[in-house]
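User: quick one, fold this
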Amino acid sequence: MNIGFMVKQIRLDKNLTQKYTASGIMNLSHYSKFERGETTTNIENFLMILHRLNVSYEEFLLKDTSEIFMLKKGLSHDFANAFTAGDTLKLSKIIEETSKILENNNELAFHHLNELATVYLSLFNNGFNLADLQGKLETIKSYLRKVNNWGIYEFVLLNNALGTFKMDEVIYFAQKTEVQLKKFAITDKCYIANAILYNASLLLLKAHRFKESHKFASTSIQTAKKHANTFELIVSKITFHASAFALSLPAYHETELLKSFIALDVIDNSNFYQLIAQICCEIIPDLEMKLQNIHI
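Assistant:
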């Protein structure tokens, strides 16, 4: 469904005029064309229009029940579940379904889902050997490089793909995430950006890129505190202190590191705790013994 037409339907449902809705956002002529689907607008103007209509971004998305939108939403949900569970059968099904769709519909979102499912199916089948991914996900990387203003879709897309990137690419896209954070502050967008930053910090910590890991952990901690993102704050504090230890920085505090591990143990599943503990224990001598003593 055309976005402008959806905005028009919401405006008419609320008995508001075009003049009122467009006032202070864009000129009336441009707004009228936007509602007719004859032109587009930038994300900032679009979100201000939704605010004027007293409709959240999430509510707006729920109003689009078109077949293609629901298909994308369903496949995205299936991918998230398959990726989390390591379900290769479901990933194979997503590849098959998106390949069929792409025969008649060339939407980038289906290309992205097809690429992601193909790459993660390969990873789950080869024991996560990233060396086999040379030249993969180029459509996604190219797309993220050229889009100037990221929305929630772009942040989610990057977060899904980040773990397969080379470290220089992780740094590049984490830096771009920092820039995007400064452009526009939407809570959901900041939440996903926060996840990208702590994931980047963790990946770089594992690769012994300590300086960059520490930098992104610092930004992630600031973002998590600002938006009350508890899990992201805990993980970011762990990578912050582990990288500080490796760099011999005065910012390292063992007590704070252990407190963060205790908090992570309480709120998260054991698999992630074990993963991040293993990475940190390879960097910090005696940490494994201390974690065993405090492990709940």
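User: anything notable?
Assistant: The chain has 17 helices and no strands.
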